[in-house]
Amino acid sequence: MRKEARLALGITVSTIVLGACVAGPGTSANAQKPRQISASERAQAAQAHPEIMAEFGGAYEGPGSAMVKRIGKEVAVRSNIASAQSECTVTLLNTTVVNAFAIPGCYVYMTRGLLSIMNSEAELASVLGHEIGHVDAQHSKKRQNAALGSGLVSILATVLTGSSQVGQLAGQLGQAWTMKYSRDQEYQSDDLGIRYMTAAGYDPFAAAEILQSLGDQEALETKIRGQTEAAQVPSWARSHPLTTARVKRASQKAAATGVKPGQLKRDAPDYYAAVDGMLYGDDPEQGFVEGHTFAHPVLKIAFEVPQGYYLNNGAAAVTASGAQAQIQFSGGKLGDGDSLDSYISTVFQGVLGNSKAQYTGVQRTTINGLDAATATARVTTQSGNRDVTVYAYRTGGGSGYHFVFISPSNVNASSVVSTTARSFRRLTDAQAAALRKRVVQVVTVRAGDTAQSISQRMAFSNYRLERFLVMNNREENPTLRAGEKVKIVVYG
């Protein structure tokens, strides 16, 4: 959540769906014909772009950004849609989520999280080429009906409650499930991506390598977070299903190009130089997620969610979803002369819109030394009754913060609501100062260094070796050569 927290939740799931739509099976890469990006595609992309930027933390312009833009345009110009590099807009997003996507109009997006686990410019060219392939083949038009269907939960929530914000929350929490690709659809885009990167002069065998790394990252995420929470994390591996057969097939397609491994450029040294110093993990301006805790060093606030709830740190709100409830945390203006009652009324108005649902009388309390208040509304929907509970806090300085909890009325979510709401607190100056950013550091292996010894320098309290192996695409017990480059994560 950014410092300038606001009540709006940002982009809805339907916008993301348009960016991740796919083609039907059986379309041959060789069947693609040169075409012009239509004016309507450009207009829709330009309209969606600011919303996508707001949802994913904006553009990251630090180390790695120039490389992503350059290679994205190099690959795009080898496709059937971009006759000039200026026709595609390529953005490195300021988020730790491991993902990439593109929308019609040739707007292509890569996240810092995904870039951090790559190890060459060729791997980057592969992923960008894959995403451009979806645009090149006009997959969104071929999957339009399916895209609308996958946004149904968000649309229903909006219609049934009269609330755009409840709909947006439902959509935002469902992002991990909206970008599903069939095997044939993925194979088609793999083929296109390999074709583009090879034409751009990059080693096509890197395609299989990054697919393997993505699978390893997914497995590590599951291990660290646990099966339930990891399944909620938006990731390229879930939106682009990975299998051993797909990795093997990518190698076969690379061999079919006639290029020998290592014959074309990989540019690993250039990649390492570009990402050295790149921000890793959460941006301090958006706050930090550590396990089940959210802490913001600038706003000097923190809270926890229970086990089983994965925290998603968006630009405008922090969200979480679990078996009992959906949770949204955000902020707004609350002057010294404003009442918490009126603040809660404003929140409910934003959530329930023009709905006639009434909420209970506001109950005043004190939580961790802060003035707080809460109220609950029951909303009748075609799917059953829903309870919407708001907890609001006065923190001073003209700011207020609040949780919105949405749960089925027949589910007892009181423990989740109470535990989360009562964990909200102000941070001391010392506690806020202790929240430090992490950055990628490229180091040169020295004689006697091992993966185990180097990984101990990683700025994590757990899974240091496993994280090191994944972000450097190394097998277990690797042999490191003196003089080679590897990446670690350190405090910045």
Characterise this structure.
Its cofactor is Zn(2+). Residues 441-488 form the LysM domain. The structure is a single chain. The protein folds into three domains: 13-278, no CATH class; 284-433, Mog1/PsbP, alpha/beta/alpha sandwich (Protein Transport Mog1p, Chain A); 438-491, Roll (Membrane-bound Lytic Murein Transglycosylase D, Chain A), CATH 3.10.350.10. A hairpin with a 4-residue loop joins strand 8 and strand 9 (318-321). The longest helix has 20 residues, at 206-225. The chain has helices at 13-19, 39-55, 65-76, 112-115, 121-136, 139-142, 144-150, 152-161, 164-173, 183-199, 206-225, 227-230, 236-239, 244-256, 268-275, 340-352, 414-421, 429-433, 451-455, 464-471; strands at 89-93, 100-103, 107-111, 279-280, 288-290, 293-296, 301-304, 310-313, 318-321, 326-333, 363-367, 370-381, 384-396, 399-408, 425-426, 438-444, 485-491. The chain contains 20 helices and 17 strands. Strands 8-9-10-14-13-12-11 form a seven-stranded antiparallel beta sheet. Strands 5-6-7-15 form a four-stranded antiparallel beta sheet. The chain has a three-stranded mixed beta sheet with strand order 1-3-2, sandwiched between helices. The protein is globular, with a radius of gyration of 23 Å. The protein starts with 12 loop residues before the first helix and ends with a strand. It is an alpha+beta fold and 492 residues long. The chain is 39% helix and 20% strand.
